[in-house]
Amino acid sequence: MISIALHGGAGTIPRHSLDAVQEAAYRAALAEARDIGFGLLASGATALDAVEATVRALEDCPLFNAGRGAVFTHEGIHELDASLMRGQDRATGAVAGVRGVVNPVSLARLVMDHSEHVLLMGAGAEEFARLHNAAFAGPEYFFVELRHRQWIEARTAGRVQLDHSAPLDEPEPTDVPPAVGAPTIRLNELPNGKMGTVGAVARDQFGHLAAATSTGGMTNKRWGRVGDTPLPGAGTWADDRTCAVSCTGHGEFFIRGVVAYDIACLMEYRNLPLAEACRIVLFDKLLPVGGEGGLVAVDAAGNVVLPFNSEGMYRAWKTSGGEEGVAIYG
Length: 330
Description:
There is one protein chain. By secondary structure, this protein is α+β, with helices and mostly antiparallel strands. The protein has helices at residues 20-42, 47-60, 104-114, 122-131, 139-142, 145-157, 251-257, 259-270, 274-286; strands at residues 3-11, 80-86, 91-98, 119-121, 198-203, 209-215, 236-238, 243-249, 293-299, 304-305, 312-319, 324-329. It has a single domain (3-139, 192-329), classed as (Glycosyl)asparaginase (Glutamine Phosphoribosylpyrophosphate, subunit 1, domain 1, 4-Layer Sandwich), CATH 3.60.20. The chain has an 8-stranded mixed beta sheet. A hairpin with a 4-residue loop joins strand 2 (80-86) and strand 3.
């Protein structure tokens, strides 16, 4: 069986937060990315190619906190993280804190395929990207007005915040000027801050698994903060013997819990089914210590689960067994 599942972020997503137009835009973006990945799988592509293409589509969409729609750091820039992993040999590529890279997940793929390393960061990763002709864009490409307002709110309040936190109605004055030459994406065209880290998992017709995740991190983050997304075992994991996992949520908790790998371990060492392993990690272990979020996962047989312990998670899935859907709320 071929299978794909993806997420666009988890968090506080009450049903009244989206009007019909906004909800339709989200569902369409999720379905389009899903169909890109599933179409590749159906044509014989590998799981790794499918998750990379799916996440690229989400990075290109300004609705999500990855690539083009990434949140602002404290300094008013965008620092992007991404990783992907191949289940047949656990080959992994990841980047952290990169600036100006249009598709960080594809840069992570370049790290996997064309270096002896797993994780590159900052200026070094950008140098590697230029060496391999990765696409770059200026700050205006990544600017989304809602993200800018979220940044103003977070700076005014002196805090970092998850990308799904709703902005203030009237943010206080700030010393941060609006970006020049930003695209005409207006606040009322986007849901009220309910955006997130993106990721995908897949099983291909050869029985191989793969996972990929990409994010802009937390609004107003400082000091080179890195979350779980580019860390193998924390936010991303794939092993043909067990499962592929891509996480979204409060990264610090997912790092401490080694969430993605913990699920695979429960399957490998306790022989638990995928759904039960995810339940234990997300609800029994993560939730009691304050870890909010969710994940998408697929096991070696192609079974898909999309659990979350938050109010909602943007998600979509499809299998050759006839299961498919797009959902937002719990």
